[in-house]
Amino acid sequence: MQDIGATSTASPAWSATSWKGKPMAQPIEYDDQEHLSEVIKRLENLPDLVPRYEIDQLSLLMQFAAQGQLFFIQGGDCAEAFSDIRPQIIKSKQELLIAQAEILSDGLGVPVVPIGRIAGQYSKPRSSCMETLSCGSVVNAFRGENINAPNKSSRSPDPERLAMGYHFSAVTLSALRTFRNRNENAINAAIRPSSGVFTSHEALHLPLESSMTRHAYNTSAHMLWIGERTRQISGAHVEYMRGLRNPVGIKIGPSTSPTDIVELLDTLNPGKMVGKNVIITRFGAKNVKEKLPDLVQAVHASGHLPVWLCDPCHGNTYATPSNVKTRFVEDMLDELKTTFMVHSEIGSSLGGIHLEETGEEDVTECIERASVNLDTAEFPEYRTLCDPRLSRSQGIDFVKTYADFFRN
Ligand code: PEP
Ligand code: MN
């Protein structure tokens, strides 16, 4: 589907498929391109997954967050599993985000709005496109349920999975609407969508994302983000995202320079709309003090006013000697607190927290340094398809600790 494009926010050359002329990082190689095109055509004709007025509603809330008057808690799986599309699991994710929003709102004294990494977080970038199994054979890496099956014997990309992803997203949204707490107070009702939590995912799979783009709205989620691995200024992902009317996130790691970030903002948001972009910093606890101040100052000097979120997960990942990917909760808290301090000292404000977490209680994927060490850590319930998630109680304790720190 050709899209006529946004009016004031994009240059005339933008369309939902103008990314096709640009180099693409993290591409997905399909054996059967015709099959892919046929699935994409089918998706173009399916209904919007989220209402456009809710996308505009989130854009408005972003303006408040950019100015320090509102806070976001964005959280969910690194990669959602199709096998987790079950009522109790969906409900537990929604309940966790809403509980975290309430704890943070009490502590921070501002409205706190939940955004799930949910109902579409099915496409993953990977640092290596191949994976060596313990038996020695080499297979394609798992790239998210939209692309290939986590089951190791069948890792070929299958276009039909994109249609499955659409339907699973629709079912998840429908479940979220059913579970939404009807008793929430009037203030919360006004700042939450019909699904109780706003939805978001990484816009990695561009044929899919453009098939869901109508009149410059990506209707598959309220918010989309560009990953750390696909944020090249002249690349396909930035080209696609620059024309969208949705709030657009950008993940940035420690290699990002002040010039990089200002160029990205100028490209994604030439009109310098307040809160249009969400910069999600994921530096690693050790790097925040050194890297973040220059970036915040450069952005401030450029006249952009984005929302700043802290992702304390992706810069703090370790492999155990037996090669289990994990994170120490203490490092994550350290990154979050330091990020908050840097913003406060410069007169900027932290607008939210971005976490990988699950509503399930028994998951053992992230660990506490106080109780285990890396050499002996055990992970009896390690179920994530990709990166390690905080369990429900780790997720609750995490925001409680931050709220207490903020109060004092
Ligand atoms: C992620 O959010 O799961 C991810 C891959 O993050 P990043 O792009 O920041 O590495
Ligand atoms: Mn991840």
UniProtKB/TrEMBL annotation:
Catalytically driven reaction(s):
D-erythrose 4-phosphate + phosphoenolpyruvate + H2O = 7-phospho-2-dehydro-3-deoxy-D-arabino-heptonate + phosphate
Residues reported in the UniProt entry to bind phosphoenolpyruvate: R117, E228, R229, K251, R282
Binding locations of Mn(2+) = C78, H314, E356, D387
Q: Which UniProt keywords apply?
A: Amino-acid biosynthesis, Aromatic amino acid biosynthesis, Cadmium, Cobalt, Manganese, Transferase
Output the Gene Ontology terms for molecular function.
3-deoxy-7-phosphoheptulonate synthase activity
| Top-rank taxon | Eukaryota
Disordered: region residues: 1-20
GO BP annotations listed: amino acid biosynthetic process; aromatic amino acid family biosynthetic process; chorismate biosynthetic process
Cofactor(s) required for function per UniProt:
Mn(2+); Co(2+); Cd(2+)
Its EC number is: 2.5.1.54
Give the pathway listed in the UniProt entry for this protein: Metabolic intermediate biosynthesis; chorismate biosynthesis; chorismate from D-erythrose 4-phosphate and phosphoenolpyruvate: step 1/7
User: In which residue ranges is the amino acid composition biased (Low complexity)?
Assistant: 1-19
What binding details are noted for the cofactor? Binds 1 divalent cation per subunit. The enzyme is active with manganese, cobalt or cadmium ions.
**InterPro entries per record:** Aldolase_TIM, DAHP_synth_2
Q: Which family is it part of?
A: Belongs to the class-II DAHP synthase family.
Q: What is this protein called?
A: Phospho-2-dehydro-3-deoxyheptonate aldolase
